[in-house]
Amino acid sequence: MTVIRLLLVDDDPLVRAGLSFMMGGADDIEIVGEAADGSEVAALVDRTRPDVVLMDIRMPNVDGLTATEQLRARKDAPQVVVLTTFHADDQVLRALRAGAAGFVLKDTPPAEILAAVRRVAAGDPVLSPTVTRQLMAHAAGSALDTRRSGARTRMATLNDREREVAVAVGQGRANAEIATQLFMSVATVKTHVSRILAKLDLNNRVQIALLTYDAGLLEEDGH
Predict the structure, then answer these.
(1) Which of 195, 156, 161 is nearest to 178 (CA)?
(2) Which end of the chain, N or C, is more open, meaning fewer C-beta atoms within 10 Å of its C-beta?
C-alpha cells in the first residue's frame, strides 16, 4: 500500500484538528505537517515533501491562492486541493488556473474529502462534470472575451486528435470514457493528455478544461 503524504493548511486550529483527526485515521494517509498561513507552506513543503496539500483559500497573511501559485511554479510540486466554503467563487477559479487539481467544500462529508485526496494523489482532478459546468458558467461573466483569442491561439498548436481529446477532457470525461468516445485505447488517451499538457504548458486536466472553455470549444460542441 502506498501511503499518501498530506500537508494541512488552514488558519482555523479547530478545522485543522478536525481534518487531522479525520484524515489521520486512514491507513493510507500520513499527516506530515500543518500550517496556519500560506507564508509557512514553502518551508514546510521543503521539509516534509508532501504528495498532496489540502489548502484553505482564505487566510489572513498569505492566502491559499498565492501559496498555490508559488507551489505550482516549483519543480516536482505537490498536488493542491483547495478548501473553500463556495463552489463558484472567483478565488476558486483563480486557484484552478494556477494549477490546483481541484477543490472540496469545507462541509463535504469526511469520506468524500478522503476520496478527493486519494484521487488527486493518483493524478485525477477533483471536479465532477456538474461542478465543472457550474464553474464554467461562473467564468463566463469574468472577462472571458479578453481570454478567448489567446486561448484559441494556444489550442491551435494541437493536432486534430489532441484537440478532440482536450474537448473531451473539458467535458469532464474520464480516460475510459474518452477512449470509448474516440475509439482509442486508454493508454493512447493518456499519451494524448500528456502531450497536450506539454504543448500547452499546463499543470493538469483542470487547466485543460478551463482552456477549452476559454477558447469556446465546449460551446461549439453543445456543452
Answers:
(1) 161
(2) N
